[in-house]
Amino acid sequence: MKINIGVLFGGESVEHEVSIISAIQAMEAIDKNKYDVFPIYVSKNREFYYSDDLKNIASFTNLSNINQKADKIKLIKNGSKVSIEKYNKSLFSKKNIEIDVFIPVMHGTNGEDGSIQGLLEMLKVPYAGCDVIGAACGQDKVVMKHILQNSNIATYPWVWIYGHEFEVNKDEIVAKIETLGYPVILKPCKLGSSVGISVAHDREQLTTAILETRQYDNKILVEKMITNLTEINCSVLGDCYECTASVLEQVGKGAEILDFKDKYLGNGSKSTKTSGMASASRIVPAPLSDDLTKSIQSMACDTFKVLSASGVCRIDFMIDNDNNLVYVNEINTIPGSLSFYLWKESNLTFTQLMDKLIKLAIDRYRRNEKMITSFDSNILANFNSNSAKGSKGIK
């Protein structure tokens, strides 16, 4: 009997369309001899839709018409099973589809930050990738930096601010940032795909950058910018019990920062192919020495573990070419295209990668089932009105 896989994608994030591309790539890669695949699309207004047609990128050329191509659905827990059920279920509706394992391929807000993982935890169903804590720590760049710093994993000088405080504490905030020295790079705390990133070379540009960046997130990470930079990425696959690093890639760029266009639109030409991050300019394997390659791979696994990551992630590094030092930039807990192109270089096909993600999801679920999460008791069994105040009411 085949295992039913529900692939969750979309969401209200600014990375919505990127998520669609990554999910379609993943669904195409899943071994249909072992699994039945069910695409579950989350619209920008958080509604859930299902249709077999949603495996096709052409279904998303007009997002406003999705409700004409797919059924609005809800996830229903019935005993130990979780099912897809039509929102307006009629007497003659088909039998509900039971999902055995979910694979979230939702980038950014409410998909990569622990939100959808929390829903799946409440449903008590196996799901691939990071758990709630791993996802939340990986998505919040400030929390991530604190954890890395506390774990003695090298990060480039940084500070953080709340955007809403800028109007009332402008001088103090500017002074705090200027301790880093210009140029600085500003990032929305909980976004990815280089959305909302700004660079400031002086105080005037800094003011403009803060006002722009805070439109995406009230919490802003500000980093000293490395001007003579080589960007290196490494994917990690596994969990806290065992993880493996991929080959490294050196990322190319056409501007001061690698932006959304560099990552997902390639050279800017129109294409009907779902290339995603695989279309970005890169050198694989990265032209680094064996010693430096092994050092970065080891650093990637350390980062993966201290951030409680699992599944497949991508850790992005920066090499300061002026001093030849390596720094962790960030982790992507649901990377674009699931970083399959890096594992291909390690003789692991995209299909095999999806197999491993599903196995990791099931293994974690089985381990968690053995954990003590509640007690077989009820302290309210003898409840009466005189005990309503509880222990805090005792004088």
- Helix count from the secondary structure assignment: 11
What's the helix-strand series?
EHEEHEEEEHHHEHEEHEEEHEHEEHH
List the strand order in the largest sheet.
6-5-4-3-2-1-7
Distance between the termini: 61 Å
Structural class: alpha+beta
- Overall shape: globular
Give the integer mean of the pLDDT values.
Answer: 89
How many domains? The number is 3
Under the CATH scheme, the architecture of the largest domain is 2-Layer Sandwich
CATH class of the largest domain: Alpha Beta
Write the CATH fold name of the largest domain.
D-amino Acid Aminotransferase, Chain A, domain 1
Helix percentage:
25-40%
Short synopsis of the structure:
Helices cover 28% and strands 25% of the residues. With 395 residues, it is an alpha+beta fold.
SSE inventory with pairings:
Blueprint: E1 3-10, H1 16-29, E2 35-42, E3 48-50, H2 66-69, E4 71-78, E5 81-86, E6 97-99, E7 101-105, H3 115-123, H4 132-139, H5 141-150, E8 158-162, H6 170-178, E9 184-188, E10 198-200, H7 203-213, E11 219-224, E12 229-238, E13 243-251, H8 260-264, E14 282-283, H9 290-306, E15 311-320, E16 325-332, H10 340-344, H11 350-369
Parallel strand pairs: 1-2, 1-7
Antiparallel strand pairs: 2-3, 3-4, 4-5, 5-6, 8-11, 9-10, 9-11, 12-13, 12-15, 13-14, 15-16
